[in-house]
Design a protein that fits this description.
The chain is built from 18 helices and 14 strands. By secondary structure, the protein is mainly alpha-helical. The protein has a two-stranded antiparallel sheet with strand order 1-2. Strands 3-4 form a two-stranded antiparallel sheet. The longest helix has 30 residues.
Length: about 575
């Protein structure tokens, strides 16, 4: 089995200092610095690894998928009695002052590293390292485009949570600058995405080496422009009450991103990227892994259903037809307590079944029990229902031995897309260990909770199709997604899009932001839900606070460090 190698190095960007004495040698002969680095493609690859490294965050609440899922109406707080922070986030209560600080910090770690690459690569010539000028130019344009995309990604990720951000786009940019307005922030994001789209080569996904899987490309930038457009125009229209259908671009040139621009980008992606829907929605998720050669089936139900995981190596022949749907992902590795747990996908850990170890499902912390309202309202004929929600006490699903009363807000339902998976060693040597322990030939003997090397999918091709339908107000893209699930075609309506997105992307970190941009967040909460709290019958209910405008608090420590430059968000 192929063993994945993850590059997690962070390129040094320190600037060496010198003395005033002219006779002293001021060259840094031993360490990489701003002056002597970024000269070779190898330098650039290492520096770009540093940019992607900022995608990893330590605090689970700063993890986009964990935070956004807890905020949404599809999941409850859960956990144990001591998991107060998860419950506070879920209930829109004022959390600890630095709950989201890692997200804020990593935004500027990533943006700063991208700024340096943009500055250095723009002025460099790499032709001596390639066989042709064309190859050198393609390398340069891809690198610049990736850096612009990643800077946009970091600011977008932060702005969805915090609102207007302090914008630092220069290597020597001023610190402690005031927060930009919401429109200025999204104008910069859109400008960077436009630059990324116009800069990166139009290489079809089917021709991109598997070594670049997880990296951004032109098609990913086009898809994100649509996501940014929908979120900004929706937020301004439905939350701020300032109806708009375009994003004003940053910079002296002005201009804007319009609906027509976005549709053009999406259609370019649909027509030329070679991304496509996986044959079965359920094959996107690791529970469908059936390794015929090793005789290993993670979940017998998956084999009975004829499923076969598409894997997470792009179009690698390791997994047959490969994965044509995942466009942009966060790659994870195994880890240990010393390396930093953020390099392990902690979403399956925190959202895993609490204190129950049942092959093929390992135990987790029990955050985010699924709202039974979703299960009860979802048509059983839609295979995505059982493909997304894991029902307890279901022998077919491997949960017949579930023991309840291990945690709070228990509903008997957990997410199935991101959960801990385990099985017996096919060779009969190591007993029961995590799925990825065997899949990637790990030698990490740490507990199951450090074996989750499942990619987190930021962007799937299904979203390209659904966003195209929503923006164009046509049904073709939506029906392609429905037809993949075996459902009949229907006519376009915004309500149909809303339901389709809820079912297609449940627990993928998108629902909360959809509720906010549609203005549906005000009415999505308040239901009385019967639950079990550590063995006691209880009623769960949370109330969204409209005065927060869908934003979380800026970390108080950052406000103090800004010397008065930052103001706290409304309602916090």
């Amino acid at each position: 089995m192929k063993k994945l190698v993850y590059i997690l190095s962070i390129a040094a960007a320190t600037v060496s200092s010198s003395c005033n004495n002219d006779f002293l040698d001021t060259d840094n002969l031993y360490e990489k610095s701003y002056e002597n680095f970024y000269r070779t493609p190898k330098d650039i690859d290492e520096a770009m690894s540093g940019v992607y490294n900022a995608l990893y965050v330590g605090n689970p609440h700063s993890n986009e998928s964990i935070a956004a899922n807890l905020l949404s109406d599809l999941m409850l707080g859960g956990g144990g009695p001591d998991d107060i922070s998860a419950k506070n986030v879920d209930a829109f209560m004022d959390p600890a002052e630095d709950t989201y600080r890692d997200l804020w910090i990593e935004t500027y770690n990533g943006a700063t590293r991208a700024n340096i690459i943009i500055s250095k690569v723009a002025e460099s010539d790499y032709s001596e390292f390639f066989e042709s000028e064309q190859e050198a130019e393609q390398f340069k344009m891809q690198t610049l485009g990736e850096a612009y995309f990643m800077r946009a990604f970091f600011y977008f990720r932060a702005a969805k949570f915090f609102g207007g951000m302090p914008l630092i786009t220069e290597v020597e940019g001023a610190r402690d600058v005031a927060r930009s307005s919401y429109t200025e922030t999204f104008g910069q994001i859109a400008s960077d995405l436009k630059m990324a789209i116009e800069t990166m080569p139009a290489i079809p996904f089917s021709q991109i080496p598997t070594s670049q899987y997880g990296h951004a490309n032109k098609w990913v930038a086009e898809a994100y422009m649509a996501r940014v457009y929908l979120f900004y125009t929706g937020y301004m229209t439905n939350i701020e009450g300032q109806a708009t259908s375009e994003i004003p671009l940053a910079g002296e040139a002005g201009g804007s991103i319009t609906k027509a621009n976005v549709l053009s980008y999406l259609e370019d992606c649909m027509n030329n990227s070679t991304y496509a829907l996986a044959d079965d929605f359920r094959n996107i998720w690791p529970y469908s892994y059936v390794n015929q050669s090793a005789g290993t089936t993670v979940l017998p139900w998956a084999e009975n259903e004829g499923l076969e995981w598409v894997g997470q190596d792009g179009l690698s022949p390791t997994f047959g037809t490969g994965n044509p749907e995942s466009m942009f992902v966060l790659r994870y590795s195994t880890t240990n307590w010393d390396w930093g747990q953020e390099y392990n996908n902690r979403t399956p850990l925190f959202f895993g079944i609490r204190d129950n170890s049942m092959v093929p499902f390992g135990q987790g912390w029990g955050w985010g029990p699924v709202n039974p309202k979703l299960w009860n309202s979802w048509d059983d004929a839609d295979p995505r229902k059982k493909g997304s929600i894991l029902q307890m006490w279901d022998a077919e699903q491997g949960t017949g031995g579930y023991q309840q009363d291990k945690g709070d807000h228990e509903t008997g339902l957990f997410n199935k897309k991101y959960t801990t998976l385990q099985h017996d060693d096919p060779d009969g040597e190591d007993g029961v260990k995590g799925m990825f322990y065997f899949l990637y030939d790990m030698n990490n003997g740490d507990p199951l909770q450090l074996w989750a090397a499942q990619d987190f999918i930021y962007m799937r091709y299904a979203d390209v199709l659904l966003m195209h339908s929503e923006i164009s107000e046509t049904a073709d893209g939506m029906n392609a997604v429905r037809n993949r699930a075996g459902l009949s075609s229907i006519g376009y309506s915004l309500d149909a899009i809303k339901e389709e997105r809820m079912h297609e992307f449940a627990f993928e970190g998108l629902r909360w932001f959809d509720l906010v941009r549609w203005g549906d967040v005000n009415n999505a909460f308040g239901d009385q839900i019967n639950v079990r709290n550590s063995g006691v019958d209880a009623v769960y209910s949370v109330q969204y606070r409209p005065e927060t405008k869908g934003l979380v608090p800026v970390p108080e420590s950052e406000i103090r460090l800004s010397n008065g430059a930052y103001e706290q968000n409304p309602g916090w």
